[in-house]
Amino acid sequence: NYAIETRELCYTYEDGTRALDAISIRAARGAVTGILGANGAGKSTLFLNLNGVLTPSGGQVLLDGKEVSYARRDLPELRRKVGIVFQDPDDQLFSADVYRDISFGAVNLGLPPEEVRRRVELAMERTGVTALRDKPTHALSYGQKKRVAIAGVLVMEPSVMILDEPTAGLDPQGVSELMRLLTALRDQLKMTILLATHDMDIVPLYCDYAYVLSGGRVAGEGTAEELVCQP
Length: 231
Ligand code: ADP
Ligand code: ADP
Hints:
Layout lengths: L3 E9 L5 E6 L2 E2 L4 E5 L6 H8 L7 E6 L2 E2 L7 H7 E4 L12 H11 L4 H15 L14 H13 L5 E5 L7 H18 L2 E6 L4 H5 L2 E6 L2 E6 L1 H6 L2
Parallel strand pairs: 4-9, 4-10, 7-8, 8-9
Antiparallel strand pairs: 1-2, 1-3, 1-5, 5-6, 10-11
Helix pairs in contact: 3-4, 3-5, 4-5
Bound molecules: adenosine-5'-diphosphate (ADP) (2 copies).
One adenosine-5'-diphosphate binds next to helix 1.
Membrane topology: Peripheral membrane protein
GO molecular function, one term: ATP binding
Keywords: ATP-binding, Cell membrane, Membrane, Nucleotide-binding, Translocase, Transport
């Protein structure tokens, strides 16, 4: 089975906007799956349905082959398993310094302090921000903030990491450093990664598979080679 699968997933906003219209996608475990599409295609809505911030209007989501429950009591576990890194790191970094920002989610899980410490140290190492631990978050560069945001998701030990436009706002070197970090997480932790992007250049380099969304529907899918060959 796949790490994530959606079957005819639908979502309609309260004002009647049909943002997802029977989306069926599959993300292989330990792979990077790209979600391409113009503004308004439905990428953010899809991600918010996957982590339970929104509840599907129809269809199914499966995680590791099991149908996801959107019952209120099951949502905390869903949000822990499916971590989201927002496009703008300032939307998820609130604490006074890097260490406290990264530990936030783990503290919230109610983990014992020594387990929090272990996870934070590991997450800092994996994202290369250990030397920044005592820095105020607002003093970091944009690329450093992105890494701290990723570390803050890693401490939750999610099975899936979703990133919204992870390369937006980075210079070419920043893009390749960030994408190398993500491929290392994929290869070393067998992390399943889903990323939304406008950036067609990163798809052949870093995505194992990709979907193209348009108007809330899947307009195309394939490996990078297949997508490039499509008319
Ligand atoms: P089938 O329906 O016969 O399983 P697919 O057309 O779905 O075949 O997939 C063809 C190949 O692409 C398979 O090797 C599958 O593992 C791979 N594949 C399909 N979806 C994804 C995905 N989201 N991520 C990575 N690889 C995928
Ligand atoms: P993307 O992330 O690909 O830019 P979105 O998921 O944000 O796409 O948007 C999909 C569709 O849903 C668009 O038509 C958008 O205008 C609409 N939409 C997004 N958020 C809301 C909302 N809160 N209320 C009503 N419509 C929304």
